[in-house]
Design goal:
Alpha/beta knot; 9 helices; 60s Ribosomal Protein L30, Chain: A; six-stranded parallel sheet; alpha/beta; four-stranded mixed sheet; 19% strand; 244 residues
């Protein structure tokens, strides 16, 4: 399956990651060859990717937020849980995994993928159904960070069982009864952070498999943080603990 990656950072990172098959690059007519556009063109020329000078009107029909560049490429290549654990082993690090339970908003997924890549997460697990997947909109929202991450699709309940066999603790973000404060939760060592969907949170079966449930303390007037913000905060809590 082919798709168009759009926006300068997303296209740049897709080319830099070299994980997708690339069919052609479209550059809007009149765009100056400098900055990120120049970087993109240089990589495309090195890989002998066909480059087309395209009218903006035609590119706008593919996506209005193209920023003067479109990349026709193969679909996103998913990994599996074993790949994620293997990457942690190769790096000589305890596994660090992000599990996203039925997110629906591409912007939220993209934001979380960007944070995950920034803090050194070894991989991300998505459910098999009822979830946003890594679409071009998500690649754009992540500023291309998705292209440098291992993202697996799995039964999350079973995945938690498999991670436990690999000595990975699971921490779910939850505001309900029985949840603990961040200081009461184990963040070091093998760790999977579970973030639930917008509005519904973590599904009951997945929640029941978590070793800890954690609530983020708040002093403001709003009732809660959205999934992307809460998940990003939790990932940085884990990052800071793992790098003391």
């Amino acid at each position: 399956m082919k798709e168009f990656i759009y926006s300068r950072n997303a296209v740049y990172e897709t080319l830099r990651a070299r994980r997708r098959q690339v069919f052609r690059l479209e550059i809007a007519q009149g765009v100056q060859e400098k900055g990120r556009i120049l970087d993109i063109l240089q990589m495309a020329r090195e890989r002998k990717i066909p480059i087309l000078s395209a009218p903006r009107a035609g590119m706008d029909k593919i996506h209005p937020a193209h920023q003067g560049v479109l990349l026709e490429a193969s679909g996103y290549l998913y990994a599996n849980l074993a790949d994620i654990l293997d990457l942690a082993k190769r790096r000589g690090e305890p596994p660090f995994v992000l599990m996203l339970d039925t997110l629906h908003d591409p912007q939220n997924l993209g934001t979380l993928l960007r944070t995950a890549e920034a803090v050194g997460v070894h991989g991300v697990a998505l459910p098999l159904a009822r979830t946003v997947t890594v679409t071009p909109a998500v690649v754009n929202a992540s500023s291309g960070a998705s292209e440098h991450l291992l993202v697996a699709q799995a039964n999350l309940s079973q995945a938690i069982d498999d991670l436990r066999q690999a000595d990975v603790w699971t921490v779910g973000l939850d505001e309900g009864p029985g949840s603990r404060g961040p200081s009461e939760v184990r963040w070091e060592g093998g760790l999977a952070v579970v973030v639930g969907s917008e509005g519904e949170g973590i599904r009951p079966l997945v929640k029941s498999k978590c070793d800890f449930l954690v609530r983020l303390p708040m002093q403001g007037q709003v009732e809660s943080l959205n999934a992307a913000v809460a998940g990003s905060v939790a990932l940085y809590l884990a990052y800071l603990t793992r790098h003391k």
